[in-house]
Sequence to fold (1292 residues):
Amino acid sequence: MEIVVNGEPRTVAGGATLLELLQTWALDPRAVVVEHNRRIVRRPSLGDVHVEPGDTIELVQFVGGG
Amino acid sequence: MEIVVNGEPRTVAGGATLLELLQTWALDPRAVVVEHNRRIVRRPSLGDVHVEPGDTIELVQFVGGG
Amino acid sequence: MEIVVNGEPRTVAGGATLLELLQTWALDPRAVVVEHNRRIVRRPSLGDVHVEPGDTIELVQFVGGG
Amino acid sequence: MEIVVNGEPRTVAGGATLLELLQTWALDPRAVVVEHNRRIVRRPSLGDVHVEPGDTIELVQFVGGG
Amino acid sequence: MDTPFAVGGRTFRSRLMIGTGKYRDNETMVRAIEATGADVVTVAVRRVDLDRTADGSILKHLDPKRFFLLANTAGCYTADEAVRYARLAREAGFNDFVKLEVIGDQETLLPDVAGLLEAARTLVTEGFKVLAYTNEDLITALRLEEAGCAAVMPLASPIGSGLGLLNPMSVRTIKRRLQVPVIVDAGVGTASDACVTMEQGVDGILMNTAVAAARDPVQMGHAMRLAVEAGRFAYLAGRMPKREVAVPSSPTEGMLD
Amino acid sequence: MDTPFAVGGRTFRSRLMIGTGKYRDNETMVRAIEATGADVVTVAVRRVDLDRTADGSILKHLDPKRFFLLANTAGCYTADEAVRYARLAREAGFNDFVKLEVIGDQETLLPDVAGLLEAARTLVTEGFKVLAYTNEDLITALRLEEAGCAAVMPLASPIGSGLGLLNPMSVRTIKRRLQVPVIVDAGVGTASDACVTMEQGVDGILMNTAVAAARDPVQMGHAMRLAVEAGRFAYLAGRMPKREVAVPSSPTEGMLD
Amino acid sequence: MDTPFAVGGRTFRSRLMIGTGKYRDNETMVRAIEATGADVVTVAVRRVDLDRTADGSILKHLDPKRFFLLANTAGCYTADEAVRYARLAREAGFNDFVKLEVIGDQETLLPDVAGLLEAARTLVTEGFKVLAYTNEDLITALRLEEAGCAAVMPLASPIGSGLGLLNPMSVRTIKRRLQVPVIVDAGVGTASDACVTMEQGVDGILMNTAVAAARDPVQMGHAMRLAVEAGRFAYLAGRMPKREVAVPSSPTEGMLD
Amino acid sequence: MDTPFAVGGRTFRSRLMIGTGKYRDNETMVRAIEATGADVVTVAVRRVDLDRTADGSILKHLDPKRFFLLANTAGCYTADEAVRYARLAREAGFNDFVKLEVIGDQETLLPDVAGLLEAARTLVTEGFKVLAYTNEDLITALRLEEAGCAAVMPLASPIGSGLGLLNPMSVRTIKRRLQVPVIVDAGVGTASDACVTMEQGVDGILMNTAVAAARDPVQMGHAMRLAVEAGRFAYLAGRMPKREVAVPSSPTEGMLD
Fold:
């Protein structure tokens, strides 16, 4: 199904959880913060939230900055 | 009757108009701006507004300032 | 004969006076100061001083400066 | 006899050497430099130089300074 | 030689505006203001003294036909207060200009930018020509322009301090980024402060204490007039580049042997 | 309003002296100098070009009846050389004034104070009125005065640098300690530099590049005229004291409730 | 010798906080930060690059057990945006501190004080420890303190400009009037800028470009560490008074005849 | 990390040299000097007090094995006088270094450059290592180097004034043009003055009053030690360029929608 991740359309397996998506992209859940349809999803809940078609996901991390 | 002018209590003739008050105090209406109970009274109306007991009047003018 | 004027060798008529040289070069004596063999020659004397072979002459004027 | 030490007249024993004078004033020769009649006297010679009446002696040391 | 100096639809002869406070006497004030060549003078709105001990109206000393009276809201600490003073000032009937001050702190007399913006928006909607006294902040200056102010008046340094132009870059940036006139208000202490301020390209300067508190206010008024013109013309003329190495002014050729 | 500006027994109208070098063309030079209001202009002494390619005498453009020609010894690196140029300059027959320069270094054009003092002593004994270009050193300035110089000319910053007055305290101290006129020479870059320099109390300023190398030399010349007067009058008027706390310009009494 | 440096209930060893942006490589960044002795480093919140071309998380290079990670909201132009970034940052799970930036203009990166105050109030109610990047305005600084900010961070000069402390008096006044720590953020260009900033009495400094963009960031990091301590100790030691006249350091008595 | 600091063939650990005058007591002096980390301390030559009222030799307090004693000729107003003091100082038997001062004026304590050069030439021929206290004049500095001085010591501002580095460009130019060490002497008032002075690239600093007259001389001594190192390392590290526009420290990519 189609979702939007970090501003770009992506095709992912239907019904996947956020945790599964992170694993798909080989992202360490402890190093990433997930915003799902504008709502932050805390780490413990990442496995409980299933993605729907058209969902918007933002994955952010700490980078160098002043 | 008792009114408050520029923050100080004053006794004036009952039923006097603002214009009459200015004359009492020998103030030139063209050099003074009158605020009556927090409402500005324009010059042409000074003769029409009668003062009631307890009214608050502010009389201001231009002074030196930066 | 050979003389040096403003640092450059020049051939001039033998026995000429400084005044005659200035006239040769169309220079107004009042606008120029003449140094002859390191000695300043005042204007009234320009006609009296004869140039010898090998003499060194400097002709200077006022130019723009700060 | 009378001599001048550091600008002030002083009476000292006739024929004394500079070294003896320093001892009189309880000054450590290693901490003082002696100028005798405007000539510096090096430490080894302090015992050889005899003071004459009217001599001028300067005794200096290092003090705090910038 | 220069573009006209227009604010809120009015054109003024002089780019120097003068305050009327703190002179040792009224005669000195009048002569000093004349020496500055200013046509805009600022005035404050205060209570009439019914007991006639205080000095009374400034109009006894300054002819409103000759000088443009720019009323200020000095001493106001809230937007409401400033709006009230502005309305009273306009009622005096000379013009609808106001030099808007909303002070945030008694010690520094620095503006409260939130109150300033609120009062500016209200007064603009009521048809006032608002000249807003503000700090060196570009963002606040941009907001004041968006609010419809007729001019933005950043300070050079605190009111009455005489410390001169503390932050030339900020003032230069404000001038570069705004469309409305930028008039530096407060902090100028002497002629060179006025001159260097105008060299930043601003449209004008408003000062009071620098003239009023000089040993000779009339002579200082004259000095300020010249300094503002000097700075303006220098800005228009375009200064020479700065160099860390020396460059001779006289020819290096034609030297004697 | 001000004492006359006298140097070496001559009184001049303007406290601003102008150099005649480095203008893009002679017409611009003349118009710019007129705009400065200067009556003293400096000139250099150089060889006549017998082949007439160079521009020739400055006298074609500046009327010696109208301007006081102050010859300099620019480009001289020894006392002897400077003395030689000064004598040639005097022979031109206009006056016995000389702006004495003995340069110590080509990169900075800073004066060689030893050579400067030597040349000054020689020229003073020969009856010259010596205006000595020097650095900011008080001691050298005092020695030049003792040597009989008619004026001492400390620099604001290096010749042609336009860096302005780098060391106001030194210049102020020199002025305070000397009896002869102190005329700041070199380094002024724009009007505010001239204004702040005059505010130190010095008697005058000599500049060249700031006017000649401005985008519009004529307008800058006018700006400099005003700036020098502004700084002078501000100095005479006596500036307000500086304060780190703000002081209101408008009355704090008579506010509304 | 000095009081501990505490912000928002946390005590830090170093008064120098360092940004982690703009280093030529991560190894240089780590070595430079170690040289500064900082225990607080700022980080930005940005999207993960799913295609792994970009550099990835800073946590690969900086041990969160060793450094206190202070997340910023750099790049946010509204209060809502800044609040959103702050919440995401806190979710990373290190601490509830945020260096709040609400930018008002892309060219100057100056703060939008209205948006800043709005975001600060929101975040404080959500339990954040807010360190607010602001301008030199005392009034805004007071409002930020009233809003419950853990620290107020006035700029020395614009972000990345390296122009140093443009307005020492404003920063000094802010420090004098506030109770919460004042940490100067942005504009420091070299060691002396850091030193003179600390001499104003502020509690700390945050810098990034001055170290990252130095020719040798590691050596500059060391210089900054020393400069911040030097300025702090000089402030605590109390400097000598300034005098316009000289005073000898050596005795004037005991000279020879 | 840095080249050794060598003067007249001797290498010193610290680039900070300290004067020993004007401390409130000897114990404070010793502790403050220890805090500076200096290995060179300056001393004056004065008459012994035969009546033992005065404090006596500095050697009671400073171990000559631990500190390098640099005698000065402070208080001398002629070349002859300075030469006499230098010879007496050398006779004390510690070293043949002398900090040469020939003062030209009691109010400003500025050097008399003519007397200074004369004394320098004499002392160099007698085998002294001459460290010459001079003004900011490049030409005099060059002459002192030609005369064989071991180091040239331009002032930052007048002795004991605490006004800091008034003329950075002059000091920078002197350093650039000379081969011998340039050590700034006099005028430093606080740590940032020392830091910015070292950032000009000079080899060292000599100070006295800034430490001795601080409220807490020991703490200020420590601050100065750090400031001199900070300025030195910042100079070696190479500062970031200054920019009039802001440049973000955090990435502009990777922002959220």
Notes: Chain D touches chain H through 23 residues (CB under 8 Å).
